[in-house]
């Protein structure tokens, strides 16, 4: 496989775009799926958001300037699509984003694609108590081991702010797990 710069050139090429996009999906589908799944919780919802993410990437690849890594740009789209999905679902159910997430976590036990045990479920409940930004930072660092530098590109914020958010999130999660 070619390097990222070559892939971007192919993605912007009229003759190579479709094959390059298939390569892109092969390379990033699983990582983006798990990133989205950590946000929306449900397998079916993650599949829908992943599809929307790839459609948006395909339609907007010509707008990719190369100021950040392609990976960071795609993760930003996936993150925004996930948040938009939760917001729309909350609006449709006439409830809050927090309640939508709580409902999704409660449904994890009946999700055939959820392989976690009671401890994993408890961790998901703890994460759901965090504000949205802390959830994103915690999930990206803890589950995906994304570097703060890359996270700063994805979330468009400073590394220092992200480190602080992660530290606070860890403390809140520890407090939740010890008291529940």
Automatic annotation (TrEMBL):
Signal peptide boundaries: none
Annotated ranges, domain RNA polymerase sigma-70 region: 24-91
Domain RNA polymerase sigma factor 70 region 4 type residue range list: 121-173
UniProt keyword list: Sigma factor, Transcription, Transcription regulation
Family from the record: Belongs to the sigma-70 factor family. ECF subfamily.
NCBIfam families documented for this protein: sigma70-ECF (TIGR02937)
Protein name in UniProt: Sigma-70 family RNA polymerase sigma factor
């Amino acid at each position: 496989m070619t390097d990222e710069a070559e892939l971007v050139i192919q993605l912007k090429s009229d003759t190579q775009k479709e094959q390059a996009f298939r390569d892109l999906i092969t390379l990033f589908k699983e990582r983006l799926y798990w990133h989205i799944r950590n946000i929306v919780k449900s397998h079916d919802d993650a599949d829908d958001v992943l599809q929307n993410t790839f459609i948006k990437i395909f339609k907007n690849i010509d707008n990719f300037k190369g100021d950040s890594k392609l990976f960071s740009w795609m993760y930003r789209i996936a993150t925004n699509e996930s948040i938009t999905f939760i917001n729309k679902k909350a609006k449709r159910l006439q409830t809050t984003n927090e309640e939508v997430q709580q409902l999704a976590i409660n449904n994890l036990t009946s999700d055939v694609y959820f392989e976690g045990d009671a401890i994993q479920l408890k961790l998901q409940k703890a994460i759901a108590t965090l504000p949205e930004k802390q959830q994103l930072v915690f999930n990206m660092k803890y589950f995906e081991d994304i570097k703060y530098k890359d996270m700063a590109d994805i979330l468009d914020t400073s590394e220092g702010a992200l480190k602080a958010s992660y530290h606070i999130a860890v403390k809140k999660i520890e407090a939740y797990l010890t008291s529940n």
